[in-house]
Amino acid sequence: MITVIQATNRPDSNSEFVSRQIDELLKKNSNEEIGHISMTDMPPEILAASSYEAEHIPEALQHMQDQYMIPASRFIWLLPEYNGSFPGVLKLFIDAVSVRKYDETFRHKKSMLIGIATGRAGNLRGMDHLSGILIHMKSIVYPRLLPISRVNELMDEEGRINHGPTLRTLEDHLKGFIAF
Ligand SMILES: Cc1cc2nc3c(=O)[nH]c(=O)nc-3n(C[C@H](O)[C@H](O)[C@H](O)COP(=O)(O)O)c2cc1C
């Protein structure tokens, strides 16, 4: 299984739209099952102190972890740039699932990172931040990062990337990761 992890809970985010487009491209290019986790499904109980106890992390989170992380051998992290990094809600998610079935979730799993920003940097810095965390968690990071800058100029009214060169680069990148 390859699981796409969409890193913001902001309503109608560009990342949510692009993550669905990535699901479609993966289905077109791979026979593997595709999982999908979105921070928009993050339950508010994650803020409770009990989230740091393996048996008490919110049920919705246990479900995401059991259904879409433990069976996955690969993750694609879609990272919008918020103040020069990825959104805090993603770190909260990673910390919560890490207290339960850590090795089955992260150890030696392969991760690919895509940054999205309306600015020029394409969240390169946030991808570096998450790479460091994933390596700390014994994961393997695909050694090509894909920054998508000025994403708002590349999308159509339905929220799909319709800029030919960007679309081709995205698809090549996904194919490279599938073969990795
Ligand atoms: C809290 C917040 C901080 C942001 N900081 C940056 C930033 O540092 N650099 C940048 O290029 N864009 C920044 N943006 C714009 C996002 O990159 C832009 O909204 C892009 O579409 C990805 O975020 P989205 O998936 O929430 O739409 C920020 C947006 C928010 C909501």
Overview of this structure, please?
The protein has 180 residues and is an alpha/beta fold. It has one domain: Flavodoxin domain (Rossmann fold). 40% of the residues lie in helices and 16% in strands. It has helices at 14-29, 59-69, 88-98, 102-106, 124-136, 164-179, and strands at 2-6, 34-38, 74-80, 110-116, 140-141, 146-148. Strands 1, 2, 3, 4, 5 and 6 form a 6-stranded parallel beta sheet that branches. It is globular and about 45 Å long. It starts with a strand and ends with a helix. The chain binds flavin mononucleotide. Flavin mononucleotide (FMN) binds next to helix 1.
What's the short version?
The chain has about 180 residues and is of the alpha/beta class. Helix content is about 40%, strand content about 15%.
Gyration radius (Cα, Å) is 15 Å
Which series of helices and strands comes N to C?
Answer: EHEHEHHEHEEH
> What is the CATH superfamily?
Flavodoxin domain
The total of helices stands at 6
Distance between the termini: 14 Å
Low-confidence stretches are none
Protein topology:
Layout: E1 2-6, H1 14-29, E2 34-38, H2 59-69, E3 74-80, H3 88-98, H4 102-106, E4 110-116, H5 124-136, E5 140-141, E6 146-148, H6 164-179
Bound molecules: flavin mononucleotide.
Residues 8, 10, 13-15, 80-84, 116-119, 151 line the site of flavin mononucleotide.
Observed structural traits:
Rossmann fold, 180 residues, binds flavin mononucleotide, globular, six-stranded parallel β-sheet, 6 helices, 6 strands, alpha/beta, 40% helix
